[in-house]
Specification:
Protein name: Protein-tyrosine-phosphatase
Number of helices: 5
Number of domains: 1
CATH architecture: 3-Layer(aba) Sandwich
Strand order of the largest sheet: 2-1-3-4
Number of strands: 4
Shape: globular
Keywords: Arsenical resistance
Radius of gyration: 15 Å
Strand content: 5-15%
CATH topology: Rossmann fold
Organism: Roseateles aquatilis
Length: about 160
């Protein structure tokens, strides 16, 4: 019997940095158990170059990563999500579309690495820090026995992960 593949959507306002990092990381780390997507409420239309660099530095392919609207995932025929995570505080406060399938939701806020000012090294360090924090959260989520927990227990666990 095949194991369930969980669809996960990461949302940030601009869909250029944090949500892109999460999408790339989970698709690499998920080993076929998870299929990650990302989107924004007001997508910038391009992925931040330092987000792509941070992923490549971790050995993660960046082909196909793009900034897109969350409307892509709310329309008929879109993949049904099992989880939807907001990764920026602004997106967490916005009224989201109605997601087909009633996915579990949680807020996994991260500081915006794209907002860091200063040297190129400081900016790259901010993207690396965001990627490392997200990687740890994803490791915790992937360690959950999702097929044996009920929906309420899973919801509590993924919400708690975002507060660590």
């Amino acid at each position: 019997m095949a194991s369930k593949v969980y669809n996960v959507l990461f949302i940030c306002t601009g869909n250029s940095a944090r949500s892109i990092l999460a999408e790339g990381l989970l698709n690499r780390m998920g080993h076929g158990r998870f299929h990650a997507f990302s989107a924004g409420s007001e997508p910038r239309g391009e992925v931040h170059p330092l987000a792509l660099k941070a992923l490549r530095d971790l050995g993660i392919a960046t082909d196909g990563l793009r900034s897109k609207s969350w409307e892509e995932f709310a329309r008929p025929g879109a993949p049904v999500m099992d989880f939807v995570f907001t990764v920026c505080d602004q997106a967490a406060g916005e009224v989201c579309p109605v997601w087909p399938g009633q996915p579990l939701t949680a807020h996994w806020g991260l500081p915006d690495p794209a907002a860091v000012e200063g040297s190129e090294d400081a900016k790259q360090q901010a993207f690396r820090a965001a990627a490392v924090t997200m990687k740890r959260r994803l490791e915790l989520m992937m360690a959950l026995p999702l097929q044996t927990l009920d929906a309420m227990a899973i919801h509590n666990e993924v919400r708690h992960i975002g507060t660590r």
